[in-house]
Write a structure and sequence with these properties.
The structure is a homodimer. The first copy, chain A, has about 600 residues and is α+β, with helices and mostly antiparallel strands. Chain A contains 15 helices and 23 strands. In chain A, strand 18 and strand 19 form a beta hairpin.
C-alpha cells in the first residue's frame, strides 16, 4: 500500500484570500474571545489544581482539553508570528502542569482535585481524551517555540499511559471512551521519532472492540464509543460523531504508517458510508442530539439537525488523512464540503460567537408548541458553552488550515484544496516551491506556480461539484485529479472552475429533503433567511430554471445571490383546491456559513421547488 | 337568538347504505369486542367495589366512564333491537352501582375502594367526568328500555353533585378538571324535564375560568382544562382537545337553551378557530401527544400527529350542537370532515381494533433513529388501551349516528348529513316523515322523500367541498343550504353531488404541508400506503393534472383510486444536480379511514407534487 506525505502548516504561508482573512479574524478576535471566556469561567485557573469543595467553578472532566485546544490554536499562531501575550498565558499553564503533574507522569485537573482515588476507573470520564489534547498542544507549542518543557512533561505522561494501558494493563478499562489520544500519540511520534508512541496508538486501535476489553460493555455504550466490533471490521459510521472521526483519523494514520491495507479498507468503507449516506450537504455529521451521534442511513432531518461543529472539523481531519493513504478526489471533496459550510457556520462573522450544533433549518413557528422534550438547535451563536469544545477547536482548525492543501510523493504534488498560499517541500532531495493564488471560493480562477518541479507532475483536484472547467495545459484525469507534467522549473498553470450557482437535490432515500432543492455556488452551500425574504420561508417556491445573479446586501459582508421565485398568497380556508395562485418574489440566498449574523430569523437550506 | 331542534336517534331508522353497514359491524363485532376486553381487564368487575390492595386489576380513576360509554353504546343498540345479553350485562352493572352508591348519592369506583377519604379533593381525578358518563348511560338505557332504576340512581347522584358544587360549594374545586358532566346534565334535563339539572350545567359553565374558583390554578393546568378565562371570553381552542370540545358542547347547549348570544359567540369563535387554524384535513384535532392538546395556529405535523379518536368524535358532537344554534353549513361541514376520516380511522375494518391517536403519516425509516423521547403514534390498531376511552366512544358514536342528520324549526327541515334513513318528526302539530336514500359517501346521488311537508321547506346542505351539484327542483342557496319548497305532502327531491376526486392543498401558513397535496373524493380523504405503492412513499410525486380512476384491490373492501404519478430513481450520490429523471408509476390511494388494515406499512395523506 502506497502512502503520501502531507505538507503541514509549518511549511505553508497563506497569501491574500479567503482563508488569510479568516486566519486574521481568528488571530485578532477569536483566540482572544475564547481565552476571555475560558478565563472568566475558571478553566485556566483550574490548572492550578487548588479547587476545593465549596469554591466556585468546579472543574469539569473535559476542561483540560478545552484549554489544550486553545493552546494548540495559539501555538499555530505563534508559529507564524511570535506573540508574547499568548506565550505568557501558555507558559503559566505549563507551570501549573509541571507543578501538579504526578511523579508518575499523570496529569488531569478533575481527577487530581475532585476524585484522586478514581484515576483511570471510569472509561467515559475523558482522561485519555484530555491527555491526547495536551499532547497535541505540547507538540505544536514545541514546533512553534522550540522550547521543549511542555513536550517533555507530556512525553512523561504518554510513557505513564503506555505503562498503565499497555505494559501493566492495570486501568479499569482498555481503550478510551472518547477517542483522541490515538491520533495525538501519532503526532507525538511524528514530532519525537519515538516509535513507542506510534505503537501505543496502534495498541489502542488493535484493542478497541475486542471481547478482551475489560470495560463492561452494553450495546448502547459500545456503539456510542465505536467499541462494538474491532476497528478493522467496522464499515458503518456509528455513535458519537466526533469520537468516531477522531478514531478514524488514527486508524487512517496507522494504516498509512504500517501500510495496513485491512485498516485502510475499514477507513475507506467508513468514509464512504458517511459520504454516501450519513452527511448533511454542509458536511455536518451526527444527525441527532441524542448522544450527539450518527443514526441510520439517509436520516438527515433539517430543523432538528445536530451536526456539531467539532464533528465537521473531525470529518475534515479524517478526510485529509485519507488523502495521504490513497489518491482519490473523493476525500478532498468531503473535506471541502465540510470546510466551507458545516465548519465555518460554527463561527460568527464577528469572530467571537459560536454554534455547537448547526441547524439546517430554523422554523420559528415549529418551535412554539410544547412538544415535550423536543430538542432544538439554538438560533443564535453564543460566546461560550458549558461544554465548550467547539470554540477552541475552531481556533486550532483555522490556524492550521495550511495543512489541508497538499499531499505529495516522489513524482507528484497533489493540490487538494484551493487556498491561496506559498509552500515549500523537498521532493527527491530537491527543494520545491509552490504558490497558489486564488479568491476561491468566491471565484473559480486558480493560478498555480511551481518552482523546481521540472520533470515532476502537478495533480489538481477537479471538485465533484464542477461540471465545466478549464486547464491551460495538457492534462489527463485520473481519480478525480487533473495531472499535468511540469515542463520547466518555473512552471505556471491556470485552472478555471465554473462557479455558476446550481440547484442540487438529495438522494431519493433522504426523506427529509423530498421535493426540496438547495443552492450551491462552487463548494459553498446557500440558504434563505427570513431577514432577507420575510418569515414563513416554507411559503416560498423556487424555480430551478430561473437565472441566479449576484446581490449586494448593504452592511452585510457575504456574497449573496438572488433569483426569481414565488410566494403563496394568504387565504382564509385551511384546505383549498390544489394549484392556488402564487406571487412572483425575488428570493435572496446567502452562504450557509453566514447565516444567523443579523438577529433571530428563520432559515432554510432546502427550498421547495415550484 | 333562534334555535333549532334535532331529530335524535330514537326517531331515525337507518336504511341500507354506508352507515347501516357500520352500525351492523358495531353491533355484531365492536360492542362485543370492547366488552370482552373490558371484562378481561377487570373494568366490569371493578363495579363490585371489592378491590383491595394486593389484588390484581386495581381500578383506574376513569374506569367508570369506560364502562358507562360502553353501556350508552349498548343502550342505543337495544333501543333499536332488544338484546337480552347486553341488557343482562348492564343490569349487573346497575346492581353493583345500586349496592355501592353512597347514602348521599355518591358513586365512584376508584374513590370508593382506593381513596375514600379523598372524595372531591382532586380536580384532575375525573370524578365528575365519570359521573357525567354514568348519567348519559342511564338516560339512554332508560330511553331504550323504559326501566328507570339506573336513571333514578344517577338523578340521586346528580342531586348530590348539585348539593356539593352549587348549594354548599364544599368540594376542593369548583368545576371539573375533565369536562363532560355539563353536557350530561343537559341530557338529564332533556330526559327528565327537571330544570335544576340544566341550571347546574349552566352553573359549571358560569363558574369555569373565574378567579373565584377555589382550585389552585397554574397556567399550564388552567389552559389544559380550558379554565384560563371565563367561558364567554374564550375565542381560541386550547388545552386537552377532548376536554375542550366536551365543554364547548355544553356551552352550545346552554347557549341554545338560554338564548345566550354571548355564549354562542364564544362557541362560534372557538369552532372557527378550530376549522380555520387547528384542524387536520381528517377532522382530527389536538396536534400533540404532550397533554393531548391543541397547540398553536397552523401547527399540524403529520408523522407526530396526535388527533385522538375521541377528539374527532367530540368535534362532531360540538359541530352538531352548533347546527342547533344557527343555520350555517360550516358546522355540518366540520362534522362531516371528522365523521368520514378522523373518527372512522379509529376503528379497524374488522371492527375489533382501535387507534387512540391517528397518524397522518407513517414513515417507518424516520422512526428508526433513537431521538430521545420522541413520541410516535402507533402504526397498527390494537384491541384495548390502558387508557381505553376511544373504543367505547366509537361504540356509542356509531350506534347513535342517526342523531347527526337533521335539525328543524317550524318551517324548515335541514338535512345536515347524507345518511340513508327514514325519520319521523312533528312539525307544527303535523306528523312528518322523511326518507333519505343514498350510497353516500361512495356515491353523490341523494334521493329525499318528504311526507306531510306541503307548504314547508327542505334545506339541504351543499358541502363546501362540492363545486358542482344538481338539485332537481327550484332552489335558492342561503348559508350553504339549498332551500326547496315542498309542493305537496308527497314530495320528492334528488340531489346530485359531483364526487370527482380532487387534489387539495393547505393554507400557506401550514408549514408541515408546504409543497404537498392531498386527495379527497367527496368528504373522504385519501392516503397512499406502502403495501400498495412500495415503501419510501416520499419518493413518489403526484401530478395533480392526471386523471384519477377507480381501482379494485382484490381482498380489500375499500373504494380505492389510482392515478399516474412518478417515482424517483435510485442513485448512489447523496447530493446530485436538481431535476433528476423520474419513472412513471401508477399510484394507488385508499380512503384514510381504511389505512393500516393490511399489516405494518408506510402511509401518507399529504403527497409531494411533481
Amino acid at each position: 500500500m502506497k502512502s503520501y506525505k502531507g505538507i503541514d502548516y509549518k511549511n505553508v504561508e497563506l497569501l491574500d484570500g479567503f482563508w488569510l482573512q479568516s486566519q486574521k479574524l481568528n488571530r485578532d478576535v477569536t483566540i482572544k474571545s475564547v481565552y476571555e471566556q475560558f478565563n472568566a469561567t475558571g478553566r485556566f485557573d483550574a490548572f492550578r489544581c487548588e479547587w476545593k469543595e465549596g469554591m466556585p467553578n468546579k472543574p469539569h472532566i473535559f476542561w483540560d482539553s478545552d484549554v489544550a485546544k486553545w493552546i494548540e490554536g495559539a501555538a499555530y499562531i505563534i508559529n507564524k508570528q511570535p506573540d508574547r501575550e499568548l506565550e505568557s498565558i501558555i507558559e503559566d499553564v505549563i507551570d501549573c502542569i509541571e507543578r501538579n503533574q504526578g511523579e508518575d507522569g499523570y496529569f488531569n485537573i478533575y481527577f487530581t482535585v475532585c476524585e484522586p482515588e478514581n484515576r483511570f476507573q471510569n472509561r467515559l470520564a475523558h482522561e485519555l481524551y484530555c491527555c491526547g489534547h495536551l499532547i497535541e498542544a505540547a507538540v505544536v507549542y514545541y514546533e512553534a517555540t522550540g522550547r521543549d518543557r511542555f513536550l517533555k512533561l507530556m512525553m512523561k505522561y504518554a510513557d505513564y499511559v503506555e505503562k498503565v494501558f499497555k505494559i501493566e494493563n492495570s486501568a479499569e478499562f482498555s481503550t478510551p471512551g472518547h477517542e483522541e489520544i490515538e491520533l495525538a500519540l501519532i503526532r507525538l511520534y511524528e514530532c519525537t521519532g519515538i516509535k513507542r508512541y506510534l505503537e501505543l496508538a496502534k495498541h489502542f486501535i488493535d484493542t478497541r472492540g475486542q471481547a478482551t476489553s475489560k470495560e463492561v460493555i452494553d450495546e448502547m455504550n459500545s456503539i456510542y464509543s465505536q467499541d462494538h466490533i474491532p476497528c478493522r471490521e467496522q464499515r458503518e459510521a456509528v455513535g458519537h460523531a466526533v469520537r468516531a472521526c477522531y478514531l478514524y483519523c488514527a486508524m487512517a494514520d496507522i494504516a498509512r504508517e504500517y501500510h495496513d491495507r485491512e485498516l485502510f479498507e475499514a477507513c475507506d468503507a467508513l468514509i464512504k458510508n458517511i459520504n454516501y449516506k450519513r452527511m448533511y450537504i454542509t458536511g455536518g455529521i451526527g444527525s441527532t442530539f441524542n448522544n450527539e451521534s450518527f443514526t441510520v442511513d439517509y436520516d438527515l432531518p433539517n430543523s432538528i439537525s445536530y451536526a456539531e461543529t467539532c464533528a465537521a472539523i473531525s470529518l475534515v481531519m479524517f478526510a485529509t488523512r485519507m488523502s495521504q493513504c490513497k489518491v482519490s478526489s473523493l476525500y478532498a471533496d468531503i473535506a471541502e464540503r465540510a470546510l466551507y459550510n458545516g465548519v465555518l457556520s460554527g463561527l460568527s462573522l464577528s469572530g467571537d460567537s459560536f454554534f455547537y450544533e448547526n441547524a439546517l433549518e430554523i422554523n420559528l413557528r415549529d418551535r412554539e408548541p410544547d412538544r415535550g422534550r423536543q430538542h432544538w438547535p439554538i438560533t443564535q451563536r453564543v460566546k461560550v458553552f458549558s461544554c465548550s469544545c467547539c470554540p477552541p477547536n475552531i481556533n486550532r482548525f483555522i490556524a492550521s488550515i495550511g495543512s489541508l492543501i497538499y499531499t505529495y510523493d516522489e513524482e507528484t504534488v497533489y493540490i487538494n484544496q484551493f487556498i491561496a498560499n506559498s509552500a515549500q517541500l523537498e521532493m527527491g532531495g530537491k527543494r520545491v516551491k509552490i504558490k497558489i493564488q486564488t479568491e476561491y471560493p468566491n471565484d473559480g480562477q486558480i493560478r498555480i506556480t511551481a518552482c523546481g518541479m521540472a520533470g515532476k507532475r502537478l495533480a489538481v483536484r477537479i471538485p465533484s461539484w464542477c461540471e465545466k472547467y478549464c486547464v491551460d495545459s495538457q492534462y489527463r484525469i485520473e481519480d478525480g485529479y487533473a495531472y499535468v507534467d511540469c515542463g520547466s522549473d518555473d512552471f505556471e498553470l491556470s485552472l478555471s472552475l465554473d462557479m455558476t450557482p446550481r440547484w442540487v437535490e438529495s438522494n431519493p432515500h433522504v426523506w427529509a429533503n423530498a421535493g426540496l432543492v438547495a443552492l450551491q455556488k462552487g463548494p459553498v452551500v446557500y440558504c434563505a433567511e427570513g431577514v432577507d425574504n420575510g418569515e414563513e420561508l416554507w411559503k416560498i417556491r423556487v424555480d430551478i430554471n430561473e437565472p441566479i445573479s449576484q446581490r449586494v446586501i448593504v452592511g452585510f459582508d457575504a456574497p449573496a445571490l438572488s433569483t426569481k421565485g414565488y410566494c403563496l398568497q394568504d387565504c382564509e380556508d385551511l384546505y383549498i383546491p390544489a394549484g392556488q395562485k402564487t406571487e412572483e418574489k425575488e428570493i435572496t440566498l446567502i452562504p450557509y456559513y453566514a447565516f444567523a449574523n443579523r438577529g433571530v430569523s428563520e432559515m432554510r437550506v432546502w427550498m421547495i421547488k415550484a
